[in-house]
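Task 17 of the worksheet. Students: predict the tertiary structure of the chain below and write it out as structure tokens. Keep your answer in the requested format; marks are given for formatting as well as content.
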Amino acid sequence: MNHPFAVAVLADDIDAAAATLADDVVFRSPAVYRPYQGKDQVEAILRLVATVFENFRYTAEWRDGATTVLFFEANVGDRELQGVDILEENDDGLIERFTVMIRPLSGLQAVASTMAVRLAGG
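Model answer:
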């Protein structure tokens, strides 16, 4: 993987991953309707997701101009899932739009329920 965000995530370096985000980044989650906005909120989500996904790995990277699509696989409990991170960069090379898609539905449901429990302090 060549994208700095992917390199940081695979190194388990959330600080370095957050450094690739624009201050006004917009994050669209597959589990909630409204986007999260701002670097602080998105960094908090990244930190939480890092504790939810098991065996996380990027399997492919595709780039076209300012857009990078990172294909990933992971587990949440006994659920296997696949997904993509769609990263759209601003003129400074920072991620300004970050969209995640996950399949299958059972994998997405496992992510959503596990994150809800952890957000509640469980």
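Marker's comment: The chain has one domain: 4-119. The chain has a mean pLDDT of 94.
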